[in-house]
Fold:
Amino acid sequence: MFQKNINSGRQLEFDIAKFLVVINLAPIHSVIECSTDEVLAHGFPFFYDSVLGGPLAAPMFLFAMGVGFVYSKRHSAKGFFYRGLKLLLVGFALNILRFFLPFITGYLITHSAEQYIEPLWYRVFGNDVLQFASLSLILMALLKALKLPDLGILLTAVIMRIAGIFLSGFDANNQILNVLLGHFIAVEDSAEMVFSDFPLLSWFIVPASGYIFGKKLISCSDADKKKLYMILSVPCLIFAVIWFTKGIINASGMFDEGQNSYYHMGIADTFASICAVLALLGIYNLFAAKLPERVLYLIVQISRATTHVYFIQWVLVMWLTDFLLYIIRGNQFLPQLYSILLGYLISLISVGFALFIRKKSIQGK
Structure:
């Protein structure tokens, strides 16, 4: 579909993008866990939950993952499949550490079934970004095994996205089935106990778009890369700003109330989110050449440790908020400033610990 690979090195704009997202993840999750729905509807909590933690977070990660499909040394069907299985196990291990253990311990102390037991099945076996990423890798393995061309992969993603719209809102009237089906389609149960955060049919278009972009990017010279970002990023920035502003002011689309408005977003919101990703990547590409080498080195190291940071910060957030704060105070809610500061403290600890673990793992090889 594109020319030979002449741009196969690290793409620093993606390192910057992942760095900026990952250092804000703990504050995002801390604000969400420590705020009521009413608080999350306005001001800084709204910004952290619905903007910074919405279209500016997961779409960037998933688009970057799609680009990584191209740049990965293990891009065979077998390589994708085993990476998908590994990530599925990592996601389940994370759910055990961030949900099962603190929730069971919390219930044994408080006997609050509403707080800890009722959401347990969904929390432990439901889908999140790691589960989605694992299924995407397994699906890519299948598409690679079928030897689909790049256009065929993109067309598959588009068909899935359209099918996801028609299947959105499905309710099996069974919590166990809804949790399992929620990995693939946008489930909405009437009891509001199950939320399918990243259904495969609805979200695969994002890494698939990243994959197609990556195929173009890896064939670009330095001059062509600058032209590519200029052509894409400027109109994408204009459209994303207009679309986001409209949605925020009118509380519509992915900025409406309830988390399903984002996780089950419409096609136009998905397109706007991808546009926002491309706009930001163009900006980061300009800044990459101007940053000092020491700063870039730190950014790259944290970017490489993204999964470690994500894993650690989620465990710390849940044990400190839904467990410790709830045990001490009877609820986990904090004033806005405190929840943000707590998040950045967790982020700092998570980054430091992740870099330490990664350094030790490299030294052990």
